[in-house]
Design a protein that fits this description.
The protein has 178 residues and is α/β, with parallel strands linked by helices. It has 8 helices and 8 strands. Keywords: Cell membrane, Cytoplasm, Membrane.
Length: 178
């Protein structure tokens, strides 16, 4: 959406949908200043009764060859900063999604494994939910980072340590065939 006029006064006067009661921030390759303005206006109009929800806090998304792009967490932070309040995160590492799945299906945490490439989302969520955790080293995390958390005296850093790790998810294929 474009800004509704040339000046900030115009932007603050654009009509708002009266039915909107939540602002959801997810990955959006077309995120813009106009959307940020609109999100803030809904949050200000609704006050605490207008929910601010984020899908995740991933600060960057890894690409091949060590490149990266900004992740959804950057967009969530922009809206949080403008609104001066924190979003409720429904994705990892929050256990909200796991609890939703577990309420619909017979999930035994003792027989469930969380596989991921990020300590601060995948592994943390798995550990918070009582799951076995497996880190793949094909993403944003290096093994020396794991050892740093493991050797730390800080309990919060220990929650970032996986139970197991593999260089690649492909390393599991022989085991899965058994």
């Amino acid at each position: 959406a474009a800004l509704p006029g040339p000046s900030p006064a115009d932007w603050a006067q654009a009509p708002l949908d009266p039915a909107v009661r939540a602002v959801l921030v997810g990955f959006d390759e077309h995120f813009s200043y106009a959307k940020l303005c609109q999100a803030l206006r809904y949050l200000l109009r609704g006050g605490p009764d207008c929910l601010l929800v984020g899908t995740n806090r991933d600060h960057r998304l890894p690409l091949e060859g060590g490149a990266a792009i900004p992740g959804t967490g950057c967009l969530v932070k922009a809206v949080e900063t403008a609104a001066q309040r924190e979003a409720f995160i429904v994705g990892k590492p929050n256990r909200f999604m796991f609890d939703c799945v577990a309420s619909e299906f017979d999930v035994d945490p003792a027989r469930t494994i969380m596989v991921g490439d990020r300590l601060d989302t995948d592994i943390l969520m798995g550990n918070n939910c009582g799951l076995t955790t497996l880190l793949t080293l094909t993403g944003v995390t290096a093994l020396d980072e794991v050892w740093g958390h493991q050797d730390s005296d800080c309990p919060a850093r220990h929650s970032l340590v996986p139970d197991y790790y593999v260089d690649s998810i492909a390393d599991l294929l022989p085991v899965l065939g058994e």
